[in-house]
């Protein structure tokens, strides 16, 4: 995979520091190719080729996003991701793998990854995913981290959800869908908007994936909490 020649303005803008990315990938040619392309996009990029070194570097907290391969020497990507989340690090993580299948994706997301890309992938799609993850991070950075809606409390900083006194465990994607709804509680959020913010505009899979995650949220939270507005989208309701 060879990234195209970059003709983009720097990602960080002239007056802001560039976003710092860490690539943890043991395929050195791929890692170097990605680093060159993303540097040309305006990002500050560091590369390591070992899971333990990746965990150490990411744990320093200096990065805005981590691109993390799953099959790594020393410590695999699942364990690196889980260790970062257990230590309280909320840096967005985009997982890469040569594997394919829903089970692997579910495992990656359940360990706390924010997105998942299967090799071989389009460089353009990878850049779109990176930009989407950084955009979501920027959107939530200045906002209050705790949102209360009736009996529902969503802490976007700690990534914890409570319904009354009960804590509800969500996967990363379930949390991201709920976050979009709670940020606009009482308003209709379209399926396309959820796809763009949670999966990004380059997602070319089945758009009904949103319904799957909304159904999962209803099962885990409350059936009446998320209202389907036919032909328009979904709205977070106050059940009190």
TrEMBL record:
SMART domains the record matches: REC, Trans_reg_C
Domain annotation Response regulatory: ranges: 20-134
PROSITE patterns found in the cross-reference section: OMPR_PHOB, RESPONSE_REGULATORY
Keywords: DNA-binding, Phosphoprotein
Top-rank taxon, per record: Bacteria
OmpR/PhoB-type domain: residues covered: 144-238
Residues modified to 4-aspartylphosphate: 69
Start-end of DNA-binding region: 144-238
Entries under Pfam families matching the protein: Response_reg, Trans_reg_C
PANTHER family cross-referenced by the UniProt entry: REGULATOR OF RPOS, TRANSCRIPTIONAL REGULATORY PROTEIN CUTR
Descriptive protein name: Two-component system response regulator
Organism per entry: Streptomyces ambofaciens
């Amino acid at each position: 995979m060879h990234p195209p020649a970059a003709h983009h303005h720097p990602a960080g803008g002239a007056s802001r520091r560039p976003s710092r990315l860490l690539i943890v990938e043991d395929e050195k040619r791929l890692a170097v190719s990605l680093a060159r392309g993303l540097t040309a996009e305006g990002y500050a990029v560091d590369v390591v080729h070992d899971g333990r070194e990746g965990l150490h570097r990411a744990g320093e907290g200096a990065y805005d996003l981590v691109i993390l391969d799953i099959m790594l020497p020393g410590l695999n990507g699942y364990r690196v991701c889980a260790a970062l989340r257990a230590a309280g690090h909320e840096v967005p993580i985009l997982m890469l793998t040569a594997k394919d299948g829903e089970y692997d994706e579910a495992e990656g997301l359940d360990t706390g990854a924010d997105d998942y890309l299967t090799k071989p992938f389009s460089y353009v799609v990878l850049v779109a995913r990176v930009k989407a993850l950084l955009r979501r991070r920027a959107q939530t950075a200045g906002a209050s981290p705790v949102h209360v809606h009736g009996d529902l409390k969503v802490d976007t900083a700690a990534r914890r959800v409570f319904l009354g006194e009960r804590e509800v465990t969500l996967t990363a994607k379930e949390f991201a869908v709920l976050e979009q709804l709670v940020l606009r509680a009482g308003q209709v959020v379209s399926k396309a908007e959820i796809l763009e913010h949670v999966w990004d505009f380059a997602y070319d899979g089945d758009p009904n994936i949103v319904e799957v995650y909304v159904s999962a949220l209803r099962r885990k939270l409350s059936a009446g909490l998320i209202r389907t507005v036919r032909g328009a989208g979904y709205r977070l309701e106050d059940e009190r």
